[in-house]
Write a structure and sequence with these properties.
mainly alpha, 12 helices
């Protein structure tokens, strides 16, 4: 116990050097990323369902757009949006609800007693999930492009890659924030994950350009990284339909960068509050739970 009667963290008790702390956190990142990356080959049935089901949803909107005589670029919009849904599902089910599931499995206590930061654990989950989900998203794009004859006009591939990475940072930062909040809210984590799934598909413009939401699109661009990143990538991949974008690509990249900072800082504060509840008061949920 410290002088004020508060139990010190394992790192404080061991009085580790800065280099040793960094190495421990890097090992935590690698340790949590490993099962998600190696899982690509451990459960082949997941590949089937995680590629087939999104592709069926993509196909439904492709047929609708072609029946309505929409520009062919809208088919590409849907294929790209279907690929990005894989990342949102990963954020909701393998990031946001992860701590709650770890608590049910009895692993959460190990995270709080281990000499590393919880952000390192979540970062490992994010990196592993990003690698795993990228394979699913790429498969959806390749299959959708081949089946429906989608052509892309990528004049600036490096800029496109930069927009993608800028989209992933706030998106997984939001997942880190939700991981703490879902645990604080207790048993409702599963229902919250389900509740967020379909509304985000709609507000994120997964199957249509978000500028058609009218005045709501401004609010969406200010709060939802999936919508901003998808809008910017569509402008870069389909320059002929750039008029469907809400804002210029440079502006949307700035918004994504600001979102990344806000969500990561918010996740850090939420984790600090969670650690306070765990170490000082011996609980992990709000009192009204």
């Amino acid at each position: 116990m410290s002088e004020v009667g508060i139990a010190r963290t394992p790192r404080e008790a061991a009085d580790w050097s800065r280099g040793r702390v960094v190495r421990a956190n890097l090992r935590a990142v690698a340790g949590r990323a490993y099962p998600r990356i190696i899982g690509l080959t451990r459960e082949p049935s997941w590949l089937f369902f995680e590629i087939l089901l999104p592709f069926l949803a993509v196909s439904a909107f492709v047929f609708v757009y072609r029946a309505l005589g929409a520009p062919e670029e809208f088919v590409g919009f849907v294929v790209l949006g279907g690929a990005m849904t894989a990342f949102w599902l990963n954020v909701v089910w393998m990031m946001a609800a992860q701590f709650y599931w770890e608590k049910d499995q009895g692993n959460l206590e190990l995270y709080f007693t281990a000499p590393m930061h919880l952000m390192s654990i979540l970062a490992g989950m994010a990196i592993g999930g990003l690698v795993m989900t990228s394979s699913r998203a790429l498969a959806v794009i390749v299959i959708g492009s081949l089946v429906y004859g989608v052509s892309y006009q990528i004049a600036e591939p490096l800029l496109l890659a930069g927009v993608f990475l800028l989209t992933m940072i706030p998106l997984y930062g939001l997942g880190m924030l939700f991981a703490s909040l879902f645990l604080l809210w207790g048993r409702e984590a599963f229902h919250l994950a389900q509740l967020l799934q379909e509304p985000i598909y709609f507000l994120g413009g997964v199957n249509f350009p978000i500028r058609h939401l009218g005045a709501v699109s401004a609010l969406v661009v200010a709060t939802l990284p999936l919508a901003v990143g998808l809008d910017a990538m569509r402008q870069l991949v389909f320059p002929g339909q750039a008029s469907e974008g809400v804002l210029p690509v440079a502006t949307e990249m700035l918004i994504l960068a600001v979102m990344g900072v806000i969500f990561l800082v918010g996740a850090r504060l939420a984790l600090r509050y969670l650690e306070t509840l765990a170490r000082r008061e011996g609980r992990l949920t709000l009192r009204w739970q």
